[in-house]
Amino acid sequence: MASGFNRQEKRNTLDRISNLPLEVTAEILKHLPIKEAVGTSRLSRHWRYQWTAIQELKFNDYTAIGQGQTITNTNLTNLVNSVLLLHHHPVTRFEVYTIKAPSSDVDRCLSIFAPDLEHCHIEGPYQNIKFVHTPKLKKACLSFNSEDMNNILADLWQFRNSPFLKEINVHAWQCPPRLVPPEHFWKKTDAVFQHLQKVNFVQFREGQNELQLIEFFLHKATILQTINITRMQPAHFNEWKKLLQFPRTSPEARINII
């Protein structure tokens, strides 16, 4: 008798979970790590495909491993590919944080739901980024090798498909070589950065390439408002003076050293 009562109580609990309003289900899924959100598909038929409506996908090295497992790039790549293969709704934010070796598989994931992508944040070493069609992209955070100008140019080349890009975060990282963009890229950058308002440099190292990149943004971004620089070391007066002397197209543009 007690056993039957327990089964009925368990069934009632499952029914309450299954009959939650869709907006409540969506709110719950939004606050779960992506791996746990996908796992809710096992709860009931009601939950089976609910996770595919999540619009913000966030991944890191730890979301892809189980207890006692070692962090590998393969784990992360497999998780990202599996999620995006089954995900059939628009993605407005895509984030990947990794310290492992680069994987072109992860990079290619960006193009799957790119037409709806608004925020993209990829922190860590990677080989190639492919923004095939990202007309709604407003904010991008990318890692680059400040000692390799080809690396920087390859990243900027990707934004030719993002005409409404408003904010770029530049994060210094030791990245492998990128594919070099066509030479005529520099002739088209006026259109690429016509809406750019804010640029953030993280772990600024005072390299010549970084200074050239700042000068480039000041020259090409016609409505630029702010360039924020977070430095690895305290700023010296001569370097600060040099930055202030860079010519700028936007009269509102200012440089803040943090």
Explain this structure to me?
By secondary structure, this protein is of the alpha/beta class. It folds into 2 domains: 1-54, no CATH class; 55-257, Leucine-rich repeat, LRR (right-handed beta-alpha superhelix) (Alpha-Beta Horseshoe). It has helices spanning 2-18, 22-30, 34-39, 73-86, 104-108, 149-158, 185-192, 208-220, 237-244, and strands spanning 56-60, 93-97, 119-123, 139-144, 167-172, 198-204, 226-231, 254-257. The protein has an 8-stranded parallel sheet, with helices on one face. Helix 8 (208-220) links the parallel strand 6 (198-204) and strand 7. InterPro entries: F-box-like_dom_sf, F-box_dom, FBD. Residues 14-65 form the F-box domain. This is F-box domain-containing protein.
The number of strands is: 8
How would a textbook summarize the main sheet? 8 strands, parallel
Query: What is the molecular shape?
Result: elongated
Number of domains: 2
What is this structure, in a nutshell?
With 258 residues, the chain is α/β, with parallel strands linked by helices. It has nine helices and eight strands.
Provide key terms for this protein.
alpha/beta; 17% strand; elongated; 2 domains; Leucine-rich repeat, LRR (right-handed beta-alpha superhelix); eight-stranded parallel beta sheet; single chain; 258 residues
